[in-house]
Structures are given as structure tokens and as C-alpha cells.
Amino acid sequence: MLAFARILCLIGIAAWPGLLAAQEFPGRTIKFIVPYPAGGPADSMSRVVTEKMAAVLGQTIVIENRAGAGGLTGTAAVAKAEPDGYTIGITPCAILAMAVNLRETMPFRPLEDLALITQMVSVPELLVVNDKVPARTVAELIALAKARPGELTFATAGVGGMTHLAMELLKVTAQIDLVHVHYTGAAPAVNDLLGGHVQLMFADMPVLLANVKSGKLHALGIGSRKRTALLPDVPTMAELGMPQVEADNWYGMVAPAAAPPAVLARLHAAAVEALHSAEVRNKLAAQGAIAVGNPSAEFQAYARRETERWGRVIATAGIKKIR
User: Residues 170, 127: contact at Cβ < 8 Å?
Assistant: First the structure.
């Protein structure tokens, strides 16, 4: 009995620093790294969520935009930060599930060096064409591409991201030959799409929504499993006979992997409370994003499945690794 008591005492002593950290956390400003420039979708979504999180935690959360290398620079800064919970951030599917399959070297190991706190949002991918393309359905687009192999061009926000791999998935599934034209971001890609320099694009709905509603771009399909209330007449790719073309972009909240479990639990609770609030859900929905806020274990399992899925797409499409 005495030995058992000693064991309990030792366990209590070992756990005390973590418990103390959780009780004191957060005692100062939290830095939230967005690995993209200010004003983009990730930035605007982060500001909505962190504003509510700050109110829940009773502490200031400051956004720091640290763009570079398609999101790798900012996410690496989170992975390598002091693991105390005071540096966290947002990172996309492209970093957590795609980059490791595409890059010869990585500055960190996404699923090992990061604590995946929760999936913040899911963002539907829209397949659009400009006015000059004589196709108003996916079937017409595929027929046109087969009649003119290697002539139609598609824009992406960069090599290896969701805008690129979603289209590669469509190419493989439909067995069509399209030419990839990559840009250094979504804004210049959409500008050239509107100008007729490229013909089509798969991209996050918030990036395309205004131009689709104005009629400048035509939405042919959506990569989500369900239609979106913002564009209820646009069918899912599954409804169009291509359930394999599932291309939801998603963003997760992350922290350094070695952060104390009790601190991560506190951050998770605050994030979920924010993401489940009607206020945040409505603001994100207006941007074309769907709030999630799931358990950390569920998010980790999903990220691993997505890593395997996109790895298969990359291998099937024969995409060369980036140095």
C-alpha cells in the first residue's frame, strides 16, 4: 500500500508542471501565424476565428503573416517555435497532406513536428471556365478537351497545391490532356483566367465566388460531397458521375508538437467553442467556408488519410517531385 502511494506521489510530481502550465495558460499574448499574405482567404478566416478565441481565452491573439514557399515558411515557423502554446497557426491541406508527397526535402515533418489541434474549416473547390470557353457543363468541357487535346490551359496558384492537384485528379479521372499554367498565387491566376489567357481553373470558392455571381466566370461543378448554399445550382462532381474528384480544401490549427498536452487541450477547447458558435459559423459561411472544429484525434486521422490519398493522385498523375 505504501509503495502504491509512493507511485501516485511520483506521478503527481511528474504531472505538476503540465497542470500548472494549463492553469496559468494563457498568461500573455498568443501569436497566430498565417503562412500567407494579409487579405487572402486564410488570413480573413483566421481573423474571424481568433477574434472569438481571444474572447473565450480572455487573452489577446495577434495575427502574424509570414508568407513564403507556398505556406511552408510560416508553418515551419510554428513547428520550430518554443513549444509553450504561445505560437500557433493555420496551415492548409497543401502543407499537411500534399507537400510531403511532392517535395524531395521538407523543413519539418508535418504529422510529427506539429500538433494538429483541430480542423478549422473545409473550403469547397469550384471548377470554373471563362466566358470564351464554349462549355457550360463538365460533360461539354470534357468533350471539348478530348476534341482539342493539349490545347486547353488551366491556371493554378502554384505547383503542388490544391488548385493544381484537384485539376490533376480531374485529368486522370476524365482522361483528358490539359496544359498547366502555374502562378505565384490565386489572385494573378484568376486575373489571367478573367482575361482569357487561360481557360479554366479549380480553386477555393471564396477566391472565385464574386466573379461567378457576376457572370464573369461559369461554375461547372464543385468538389465537395454536398452542394453549397451559396451556389445551390452548381452540381457536385459526384452527381456528375465522378465521385473520385473529391477536392475540398481544408485548413487546420496547429502548434509545436512538444507543447504540453494540457495547453493543447485548452487551445482545442477555445478553438472548438469559437468554431461552433453561430457568429463564427455565419461569418465563415459568408466567405464560402464551412466551420468544423473536430476532436484532435479525428483531425489527425483525417490528415493521414488525405496524405495517403493525395500521394496516390500524385503518383498516378506522374508529377515530378519539387526540389
Answer: yes
Cβ neighbours of residue 297 closer than 8 Å, sequence gap 6 or more: none
Residues linked to residue 65 through DSSP beta bridges, in sequence order: 34
Q: 257 and 96 in contact (C-beta within 8 Å)? A: no
At 97 the three-state DSSP class reads helix
Q: Is residue 43 exposed (0-12), middle (13-18) or buried (19+ Cβ within 10 Å)?
A: middle
Answer whether 293's CB lies under 8 Å from 276's CB: yes
User: 256: which 3 cell numbers?
Assistant: 509545436
Which residue intervals of the chain bear CATH 3.40.190.10? 125-222
Structural Rg of the chain based on CA atoms: 21
Contacts of 266 (CB under 8 A, 6+ apart): 22, 25, 26, 57, 85
Determine the Cα–Cα distance for residues 149 and 157; give it in Å rounded to an integer. 23
Rounded distance between C-alpha atoms, residue 322 and residue 302, angstroms: 24
pTM of the model: 0.87
What CATH topology corresponds to 125-222? D-Maltodextrin-Binding Protein; domain 2 (3.40.190)
- Helix or strand run (H / E) with residue 162: helix 162-174
In this structure, of 44-53, 97-106, 116-125, 314-323, the range with the lowest mean pLDDT score is: 314-323
**CATH no., domain 27-123+248-317:** 3.40.190.150
For 37-85, the pLDDT digits (tens) are: 888 889 999 999 999 999 999 999 999 999 888 889 999 999 999 999 9
- pLDDT tens digit string along 122-136? 999 999 999 999 999
Query: Residue 120, exposed/middle/buried by CB under 10 A (0-12, 13-18, 19+)?
Result: buried
Residues 212, 224 contacting (CB under 8 angstroms): no
